[in-house]
Design the sequence.
């Protein structure tokens, strides 16, 4: 799909080309186009008394600038990353409306604001019906599949990921996106405990990325591979994959968390502590509330603090996960604490927290996202 803005046709064409490069994960081409575009935008933005059409052009640029950050620095996305776009009035142009809601949903997913993400995905999907471009549909399906993956709606995630892969795989130049779809499907299979199927998807993704010499993209699949081994309590294999990711992408807080968790399982308290502190610092800097809770709970577990202190930090996490309807995490941490209480023969707490598990599972069933 290409946005059309009357006047400044050359710049509009460059912006459309820039977006196409980003859709196909062509980082070098996208970066070179950005340099050309930035020069023209800087001249345009300082001119007085801009017409409405130029405001549309500047909005289109701001939207694509955010999309460029998704391409090149997705781990650095934080709450204020969409502020420049929010300063504009809601566009009347249909395509710009689509991009606004679509990119806002991507932003909200990255910062773990899943309620807001769902609202904007639904608004974008209504407009998508009128857009004929297949690649645009494939991109939307991939992003909403990622959203459903994060919120444990694995059947919906698999459905959309398969739809996205079916389109991307038809077109030359979208091999990386096809690989990402395979990686996402692998992640869904991990949630569903279908480990053999997960490994097949992940190896397909790795093969595609290696053929296309996409070393940076390969690291994100290796993170999922680390998660695959972590979920099967194969700590040594998990750490081998995750440490490669955290060494080459030091800000990859999700890989840092998984690696810290594996060192904790192995009783390697000092190594786990260093990773936890690093992960906490990153998450606090980018204001990622979800992973701040994950790291905070793991930190207290690693420090082997008294039960009363552990309960406080787990309660804070459970409250957040309930608000975001992340019922799987409610179950995980409530079960964890109930097990700790059982070891200390605190039977009332065991009963209380297993009841929290039961309620969370019921809500998960009602939402249709139970594993």
Sequence:
């Amino acid at each position: 799909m290409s946005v059309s803005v009357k006047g400044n046709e050359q710049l509009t064409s460059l912006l459309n080309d820039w977006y196409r490069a980003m859709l196909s994960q062509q980082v070098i081409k996208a970066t070179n186009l950005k340099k050309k575009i930035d020069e023209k935008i800087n001249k345009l933005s300082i001119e007085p008394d801009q017409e409405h059409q130029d405001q549309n052009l500047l909005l289109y640029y701001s939207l694509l600038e955010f999309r460029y950050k998704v391409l090149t620095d997705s781990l650095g996305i934080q709450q204020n990353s969409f502020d420049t776009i929010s300063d504009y009035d809601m566009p009347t142009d249909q395509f710009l409306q689509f991009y606004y809601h679509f990119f806002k949903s991507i932003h909200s997913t990255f910062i773990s604001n899943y309620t807001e993400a769902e609202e904007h995905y639904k608004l974008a999907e209504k407009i998508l019906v009128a857009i004929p471009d297949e690649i645009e549909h494939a991109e939307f399906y991939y992003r909403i599949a990622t959203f459903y993956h994060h919120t444990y709606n694995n059947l919906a995630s698999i459905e959309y990921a398969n739809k996205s892969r079916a389109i991307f795989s038809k077109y030359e130049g979208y091999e990386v996106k096809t690989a990402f779809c395979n990686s996402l499907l692998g992640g869904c299979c991990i949630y569903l405990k279908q480990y053999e199927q997960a490994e097949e998807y992940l190896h397909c993704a790795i093969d595609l990325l290696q053929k296309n010499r996409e070393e940076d993209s390969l690291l994100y699949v290796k993170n999922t591979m680390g998660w695959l081994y972590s979920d099967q309590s194969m700590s040594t294999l998990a750490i081998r994959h995750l440490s490669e990711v955290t060494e080459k992408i030091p800000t990859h807080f999700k890989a840092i968390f998984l690696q810290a968790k594996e060192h904790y399982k192995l009783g390697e308290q000092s190594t786990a502590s260093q990773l936890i502190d690093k992960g906490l610092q990153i998450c606090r800097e980018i204001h990622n509330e979800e992973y701040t809770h994950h790291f905070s709970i793991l930190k207290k577990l690693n420090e082997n603090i008294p039960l009363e202190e552990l309960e406080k930090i787990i309660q804070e996490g459970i409250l957040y996960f309930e608000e975001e309807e992340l019922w799987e995490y409610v179950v995980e941490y409530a079960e964890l604490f109930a097990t700790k209480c059982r070891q200390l023969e605190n039977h009332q707490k065991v009963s209380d927290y297993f009841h929290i598990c039961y309620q969370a599972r019921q809500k998960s069933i009602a939402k249709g996202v139970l594993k």
Notes: The chain has a mean pLDDT of 92. Residues 133-232 form a domain with the Serine Threonine Protein Phosphatase 5, Tetratricopeptide repeat fold (CATH 1.25.40.10). The two ends are 36 Å apart (CA to CA). The CA atoms of residues 108 and 138 lie 20 Å apart.
